[in-house]
Amino acid sequence: MNDIKSKNISSVNKIPLISLMERASIPWGIKDKESRFVYLNQAAVDFCNIPKGFDFEGRLDSELPVPWYELAPELQAHDRKAEQSKEGAEVIETSYFGRNAVLEPWLCSKFPFYNDEGEVSGTIFYAKKFSFISISDFFNNLKPSVVTLTPPVDTFTEKELDIIFYAFQRLSSKEIAIKLSLSHRTVENRLQKIYEKIGVTSLTGLLEYCHTTGLNNYIPKKRLREGVEFFW
């Protein structure tokens, strides 16, 4: 553990953003490629509700004495996705955050950072409270969860992801067609192409695929914007 911490701290000191993070009022943090915490500013320590004096460096999400440790598998999968994209990835995390342990959603944006050889060394992230005015079906009953705004797989087109999003909610083809302003036949054709891509023949197979790959926790950004008016 000490060797890991020494190596991580050495790498962190080379990142010019550290001075910015130290003074920031919003949570900022850094993880290595195994999702071990390397750095958290004070705002992030408070946001994560990490007990004062607890040594978080070199630890995984699941190893922290915090209410949201059970979300670790989803959070780590999101770390891997962020590492694969220069544009990073976004996720909405809902749990008991802050020193008052209030159940609320936060938007977390993650980006890869690189070593001197240009190799990915881990992720840098920040979080902002997700405040909403009107509530979509996804937020009617808040509970600890992770909702990703970045597709966990690269198999589908944007239009196919829209259909999968509604199909997972068990909307019929006609209902999906109305939602997307498409013809019923167009939706049916796209569904068949989706089935062919993943080797299934029915909605049941698609639902199982979504659970396996994490698509069950995915919301297209444009659909979220349509259902929720939000501000920072």
Q: Top keywords for this entry?
A:
DNA binding; elongated; disordered C terminus; single chain; DNA-binding; Arc Repressor Mutant, subunit A; 232 residues; six-stranded antiparallel β-sheet; two-stranded antiparallel sheet; alpha+beta; Tscrpt_reg_LuxR_C; Beta-Lactamase
How many extended strands?
8
Structural class: alpha+beta
CATH A-level architecture of the largest domain: 2-Layer Sandwich
Rg over CA atoms, rounded to whole Å, is 19 Å
Helical percentage: 25-40%
Q: How can the largest sheet be summarized?
A: 6 strands, antiparallel
Globally, the shape reads elongated
CATH level-4 homologous superfamily of the largest domain: PAS domain
**Low-confidence runs (pLDDT<50, min 5 residues)?**
133-139, 226-232
Task: Outline the fold blueprint.
Layout: H1 2-12, H2 17-23, E1 28-32, E2 37-40, H3 42-48, H4 72-83, E3 89-97, E4 102-114, E5 120-129, E6 131-132, E7 145-148, H5 158-168, H6 173-180, H7 184-198, H8 203-213, H9 221-227, E8 230-231
Organism: Candidatus Williamhamiltonella defendens
Protein name: Helix-turn-helix transcriptional regulator
InterPro entries: PAS-like_dom_sf (IPR035965), PAS_4 (IPR013656), Sig_transdc_resp-reg_C-effctor (IPR016032), Tscrpt_reg_LuxR_C (IPR000792), WH-like_DNA-bd_sf (IPR036388)
Describe this structure as you would to a colleague.
The protein has helices at 2-12, 17-23, 42-48, 72-83, 158-168, 173-180, 184-198, 203-213, 221-227; strands at residues 28-32, 37-40, 89-97, 102-114, 120-129, 131-132, 145-148, 230-231. The chain is of the alpha+beta class. It has two domains: 2-148, PAS domain (Beta-Lactamase), CATH 3.30.450; 158-213, Arc Repressor Mutant, subunit A, CATH 1.10.10.10. The strands form two sheets. A six-stranded antiparallel sheet has the order 2-1-5-4-3-7, with helices on both faces. It has a two-stranded antiparallel ribbon with strand order 6-8. Helix 6 crosses helix 7 (184-198). The longest helix is centred in the last third of the chain and has 15 residues, at 184-198. It starts with a helix and ends with a strand.
